[in-house]
TrEMBL record:
Pathway: Amino-acid biosynthesis; L-tryptophan biosynthesis; L-tryptophan from chorismate: step 3/5. Its EC number is 5.3.1.24. Belongs to the TrpF family. It catalyses: N-(5-phospho-beta-D-ribosyl)anthranilate = 1-(2-carboxyphenylamino)-1-deoxy-D-ribulose 5-phosphate. InterPro entries: Aldolase_TIM, PRAI_dom, RibuloseP-bd_barrel, TrpF_fam. Pfam families: PRAI. Gene3D superfamilies: Aldolase class I. This is N-(5'-phosphoribosyl)anthranilate isomerase. The gene is trpF. PANTHER family: N-(5'-PHOSPHORIBOSYL)ANTHRANILATE ISOMERASE. Residues 3-193 form the N-(5'phosphoribosyl) anthranilate isomerase (PRAI) domain. One of its GO terms (molecular function) is phosphoribosylanthranilate isomerase activity. One of its GO terms (biological process) is L-tryptophan biosynthetic process. Coiled coil: none annotated.
Length: 197
């Protein structure tokens, strides 16, 4: 399974995640988050990354212009978007994007367009990174092959996902030492388990 390590705030964590085999790194451009990073600081990290690592910018209820500007400035290849307030004009985005479904119940998963990729996270007031899980039984009888699963994942519970065939997993607090700082051993164990080792 592919792995995105989210909430990168510093170069050391980014380089450790890449060395350990992460496919994508997430940068939170939401000012109220404890993992918030400026576009300029993210750029300093992105410029030092090797090729073939996808950089993903996280946005909450922002306009397309803002998302385009920040992604351009920071070197994000993709945007991950929460748009509860219908602020984002998706057709005006200059980059690939993943829409975030903040699931409160199984009914939130029933109308996903089967041709699109989505990131499904647990609904939390603070928008993400809270360690709250989505109930796995909600995915019964759903094709998960285009779903990135987030929310409360860690090395100990990845095993439970096996039969669902998710496209990828996304983790933040489950591999942290403290908010905004990753724990290298936790990232190692998480990536190994996601890769079936
Ligand atoms: O991480 C944050 O602080 C955050 C703030 C606002 C919007 C999204 C945020 N994170 C989103 C993520 O993609 C997290 O990786 C995802 O919610 C999973 O987090 P966790 O349950 O801690 O693994």
């Amino acid at each position: 399974m592919r792995v995105k390590i989210c909430g990168i705030t510093n170069l050391e964590d980014a380089q450790d995640a890449v060395e350990l085999g992460a496919d994508a790194l997430g940068f939170v451009f939401y000012e109220k988050s404890p993992r918030y990073i400026t576009a300029q600081d993210a750029r300093q990290i992105v410029d030092k990354l090797p090729p073939f690592v996808q950089t993903v910018g996280l946005f909450v209820n922002e306009s397309s212009k803002h998302i385009n500007d920040i992604c351009h400035l920071s070197g994000m290849q993709m945007a991950q978007i929460i748009d509860d307030e219908d602020n984002t004009e998706f057709e005006n985005l200059n980059m690939k994007y993943l829409e975030v479904i903040r699931a409160k119940s199984k009914s939130d998963l029933e109308y996903l367009n089967k041709h699109n990729y989505y990131l499904v996270d647990a609904f939390v007031e603070g928008f993400g990174g809270a360690g709250k899980r989505v109930a796995l039984e909600w995915f019964e009888n759903i094709d998960c092959s285009k779903i990135v699963l987030a929310g409360g994942l860690n090395a100990s519970n990845l095993q439970e996902l096996k039969k669902y065939n998710f496209f990828a997993v996304d983790v933040s607090s489950g591999v942290e030492a403290s908010k905004g700082k990753k724990d290298k051993e936790k990232m190692k164990e998480f990536i190994q388990k996601a890769n079936g080792n």
